[in-house]
Amino acid sequence: LAQTPRRGGILRCGRDQEPDSLDPHKTALAVSEATLRLLHELLARTDVDGNVRPALAESWEMTNGNKTIVFKLKDGITFHDGTPVDAAAVEWTVARHRDPATASPTGFLLGPLEKVEAIGPMQVAYTYRQPFVPLWVGLTLGYCGVLPRRAIEAAGAQFGRNPVGAGPFKFKSWAPDSGIQMDRYDGYRAGAVPNVDGIKIVHYPEDATRMAALETGEIDLIYTGSSVPLTGIRRLRGRRGIEVLSRPALTLRNITFNQSMAPLNDVKVRQALN
Description:
By secondary structure, the chain is an alpha+beta fold. It has helices at 30-39, 87-98, 135-139, 149-155, 207-215, 233-237, 267-273; strands at 10-15, 44-46, 52-54, 57-63, 68-73, 113-120, 123-128, 169-175, 179-184, 198-203, 221-222.
């Protein structure tokens, strides 16, 4: 942040896994979500400190005893194919996310949602059965990005391999040998247009290979999930020209026992597992 940004160049990223799909409604992988937020745009995003900031929505208001949140969308935002991002697109996206035929593994993130409806060309209301406190947990994740109906209906099942979004980068290609490549979307209006010309994400399954690629300058960074091996952090911190960034996680991982099924209905079994 202390450096003056430079325009241009391709940001080369290394990761330990590949996404299974870049259709936000067809994946639950964390590595996919980290990629989705580059391609797809959200109503709001969280900044590095966890604060909720406007993205597609310029403002929002709670009504109906805090059971309804009304989003006012920014004017002039388009998907990468030129179609407008409006209230109808948001309404259609949520309907697809909730549709049993979509079979989305992340529909639960929407919470106790009763309905989503466009109440104006650029206004959309989310109404819940009860006040939903963790509202922003789901709505700021890539799985809840707003999608272009025309592109999805045209691509069908192949949309996850050739996505169209409204995010800061637009999809270019995805191949086993060259990874995922994206170009800067100069028409991005939901936030600051990126300085880099594009991003190249390469899959390195082996920790040693990924670390070597970073240390030799083959790639510029490694990130997400277990891409940064815990055993290598001390080594990376000691390398000149490499900076290790960390921050508190905003998520919690846990295993929950179904105590109605044997053998987990036995407290001694649960204690042994703990």
